[in-house]
Specification:
single chain, Thrombin, subunit H, six-stranded antiparallel β-barrel, 1 helix, Phage_tail_attach_FII
Length: 104
């Protein structure tokens, strides 16, 4: 019998509910189903390489999508390409992936 945290199901439910309230975009991948995400301009950190104008980030629940570099996503009618591998956040339930706008 695998060992699990006693409140893992409750934590997952609350995380999903909070994410649904905070999301600001519905993502439609070229393959797979739609999912909710948080879409924003990348933070500019003075200690990292400078961000280029047009750096976008997509934060999403890992259980909802598997994204790889080169995937095309449609957000608010505009297409974006996944620019790099996603990286996991904190507890591993969410990921952030950089996006680049696809030229029309």
């Amino acid at each position: 019998m695998p060992l699990t945290a006693p409140f893992a199901d409750i934590e997952d439910m609350l995380t999903g509910a909070a994410f649904a309230l905070l999301s600001n975009v519905v993502v439609t991948p070229a393959t797979g189903g739609e999912f909710l995400a948080i879409f924003r301009l990348a933070d500019i950190d003075p200690l990292s390489p400078p961000s280029i104008v047009g750096d976008y980030e997509l934060r999403y629940p890992l259980a909802d999508a598997t994204l790889v570099p080169g995937d095309i996503l449609t957000l608010r009618g505009q297409q974006y390409r996944v620019a790099d591998d996603p990286y996991r956040l904190a507890d591993g339930h969410e990921a952030v992936v950089p996006l680049r706008e696809v030229a029309a």
